[in-house]
Amino acid sequence: MNKDITQQIIAPTGYFDLTNPEQSKILEFQQEILELIVLGNNYKEICEKICLLIEQLLDNAVASVMLLDKGKQCMNVFAAPSIPAECVTRLNGLRPGPEAGSCGNAVFRQEAVFIESTLDDPRWQSIREIAIDFNILSCWSMPVRSKGGECIGSFALSSFEHRLPSVFHRKLLQVGSFIIGIALEQQKMNEQLHLSSKVFENSPEAIMIADENRVIISINKALNIITGFSAEEIVGKPTSIVTSIRHSTKFFQKIWGSVKQSGHWQGEVWNRHKFGREYPAWLTITSVPNNNGSSCYYLINFSNITDKKKSDEIIWRQANYDSLTGLPNRNMFYDRLSHDIRNVSRTGALLAVLFIDLDRFKEVNDSFGHSVGDALLIEAAKRLSGCVRETDTVARLGGDEFTIILNGLTDQNCAERIIQLILLELTKPFYLNAKLAYVTASIGVTFFPADAGSTEILMKNADQAMYAAKNNGRNCCSYFTSSMRKATEIRSRIAYELRHALREQQLFLMYQPIVNLTTGYIHKAEALIRWQHPERGTIYPIEFISIAEESSLIAEIGDWVFKQAVNQVAAWQANYNTNFQISINKSPKQFISKMSDWVDHLHQKKLKGQSIIVEITENLLLDIHELVVKQLLSFRDAGVQVAIDDFGTGYSSLSYLKKFDIDYLKIDQSFISNLDSKSNDRILCEAVITMAHRLGMKVVAEGVETNSQKQLLIAMGCDYGQGYFFSKPLSAENFEAFLQQTP
Ligand code: C2E
Ligand code: MG
Ligand code: MG
Predict the structure, then answer these.
(1) pLDDT value, residue 659
(2) Would the pTM of this model clear 0.85, i.e. be above it?
(3) Which of 360, 523, 642, 681 has the fewest CB atoms found within 10 Å of its own CB?
(4) Measured in angstroms, how far is the CA atom of residue 467 from the centroid of ligand 3?
(5) Which of 309, 335, 357 is the last residue of a domain?
């Protein structure tokens, strides 16, 4: 760069047209500016000094440097030590153009512009006021160029008298603008260099620069921290000083081969700290050719990724393992199962999938608390793992559900021994935090390839077999059978046909009277759904409601039942009794699938909320869901009454009865059918009735089949009865006829 400057300065054209004193003045001028640059003053100051120096060489004139803001296409004063601030302010923002004064023209035309009279020259048209206000009578301006010749501003001398430059003056301007150009360029480069060195120094990644022989030339602070080597210790050493010896020479040959070929390599390696500790690192090598391309440097950067690897591992564990027991979770279980199925298919062996559900685990949880429940699950997991081989998989799906894959069985009998062992192990007492708990297990078993070929179906089979084990009295195992498959097929067929049933109007309601036991009046009925199947005849809800509950169908069916019942109750209120009520059954799934609009519908039909009683089961109130609470409250606000159906069969808790403003308890028919005998059921019924009355509820006895049951219930003070003794469920028409015969 310095060579360039001197060449340009020493031999500018016209230099020898100058007189000797002029030549020496110019040389002196150059000398002084160069000194300023060499001494490393800041560039604004250098420009200001150049202005002051040139002003010393021309009386009655002031110098200025303006720079072009390329983005905004305007010029601003950069240095003008002798120009008043007010003038500077007015010059700032000058747009280069044919009327923009000497500087605006110099940049616009990209050539020197010498104007003798600013007051009448058209080139000063747009800023003439400034000339007048600050007494600038003539102005000579020279473009300032970057090294590439691009115009970046102007260097000007403004005089307080009319004049044109002599050769000497032109030379001065030429020299000044040239050096200013170089100085500004230098400043830009210095700033960039400064920035690069800051980035280098402060990067959180270790960076080293190596020469073409892979000898380290320079390192940054992070490298010192990550490797333990100081600059003194490492500069001059081969780059391999930071890498682990666990990689072979071949490994590095490959890396450097790829750097040579593509200029770049990036990947994971093991590095070695100064004191020998090894750590995983993410390494990037980039080759940087030198200016003339004859050789190259290497930019090598890396970071210690130990923490990242640890957190990746944690994330992976969380996604694949159960945090309580440490067993594989559902995700991992499915992965292993598909992997094992592939393996077994190749070898021709068998595989068993066991679905294990602990019996009565909920009771342990409820009576001893969750921490004991958790401890039991951990212990159960250990026992299960102890029953199988290393190559088998024990997983926890969630709650008290475990699954096991028994691999590489030669025949189905091999599974039996392990299953019996599991049953035995789980029956042994659990000593947990000084508490003693007992559980058993129900196990469902299915085989690949005999029972199914896919993971999903195997799991469904095992699940179904497990339910069969539960139904067989628990603490036992049940193998998936073809009759279970049949049951599944029937269920899916019903699910399919049920979709059409609603559309084809195959569903209808029957109404069963609910009799006031004191008066004998019938002002209530329960709506019970039926399905008129084209081939199978009448199908009862027990066969299809649970299937509808497995899909969104239950919501549609439920809404249909509600609307039917509403139309019916409107008719019976109009024709029979204005207080007539119809009870409808609402399954828990209906509460959770969406917020119902039943109350609005009643309002639209101009019916009182009391027209409808909604029957729910106790279990709905156990695991209380936000939507359940909302809907129950909206029913209460609207006057819609709520009954607990099948009371006594669920997990009875008295506290919620009050909490949710329940209006009726319907005692389950299993208690009523035993009333005549000397069973405890009579005492239970009596207790329920007394308690309900204390809490302000009425009681309905379900399944009243005999007169003696009715009499006993009346004696106990039961409010209502429903059952075959009074009437079976009837069609609307028959119900009306039935009403005619009763009071
Ligand atoms: P639930 O609500 O407890 O209805 C009483 C059931 O007992 C009815 O069976 C009824 O026919 C039967 N029953 C009535 N009196 C007697 C009697 O004296 N002796 C005997 N042995 N049984 C009697 P159904 O109609 O088969 O309904 C069964 C269950 O299906 C209902 O039990 C209810 O939980 C459900 N269900 C019925 N309709 C609907 C509905 O529209 N939606 C929903 N989600 N479930 C419904
Ligand atoms: Mg009911
Ligand atoms: Mg019932």
Answers:
(1) 79
(2) no
(3) 360
(4) 23
(5) 309
